Amino acid sequence: DTAVSQTPKYLVTQMGNDKSIKCEQNLGHDTMYWYKQDSKKFLKIMFSYNNKELIINETVPNRFSPKSPDKAHLNLHINSLELGDSAVYFCASRREASEDTQYFGPGTRLTVL
Amino acid sequence: DQQVKQNSPSLSVQEGRISILNCDYTNSMFDYFLWYKKYPAEGPTFLISISSIKDKNEDGRFTVFLNKSAKHLSLHIVPSQPGDSAVYFCAASATGGSEKLVFGKGTKLTVNP
Predict the structure, then answer these.
(1) Which of A22, A46, B106, B111 is deepest in the core (most CB within 10 A)?
(2) Contacts of B60 by beta carbon, 8 Å cutoff, 6+ apart
(3) How far is residue B14 from each of residues A20, B78, B110, measured CA to CA in Å?
(4) In whole angstroms, how far apart are CA B81 and each of B5, B62, B67, B85?
(5) Chain A CB contacts of B1 below 8 Å
(6) pLDDT value at position A105?
(7) Is B60 left (phi over 0), alpha (psi -120 to 50) or beta?
(8) pLDDT category, A40, cuts 50, 70, 90?
């Protein structure tokens, strides 16, 4: 069973479109994250949710809106897509205890044309 | 501003030899450090971590060393195996755990048979 899953794995779309990426974890974790890995390979945190509450919100354009319908899901919706949004987006989850590691999903490669 | 730096984008070693991957950080508030391993088209997977109260942590073939005064950590893999070929990310946190991670750019390790 996949611990942290993301759909879709690849997403190709036109500028200006709105798209969503879904993430689900079956580990019973309390906290979920979205990361962006850009063309320079930096992996940067975007958001984190704990029990459906937004905890971390880094400097991300408000075109990006995370939504957590329940503890096991954290979706990322992106409005008015721009070329610079092309990247690999990783979802991750973690238990509450501070030393527990984050478990990452396989990533979604988003290409904006 | 890169707070976590992995200055070697790539490293190539022979099977059976030691692999040493280096990481430097600038933020003196970082108190928890992790190494993640990433294969192509997969998400990062946790390898080993170290708290700032220690200077060494060992797990099988993997050892992480922390030099706080130099703000430097390293990952030693002995002996290196072809299956270790991957991108290795160093990550740091100022929260005492893996709650909010700052990642380096990664070092691509190739272990030649």
Answers:
(1) B106
(2) none
(3) 43, 11, 8
(4) 25, 12, 26, 8
(5) none
(6) 96
(7) left
(8) confident
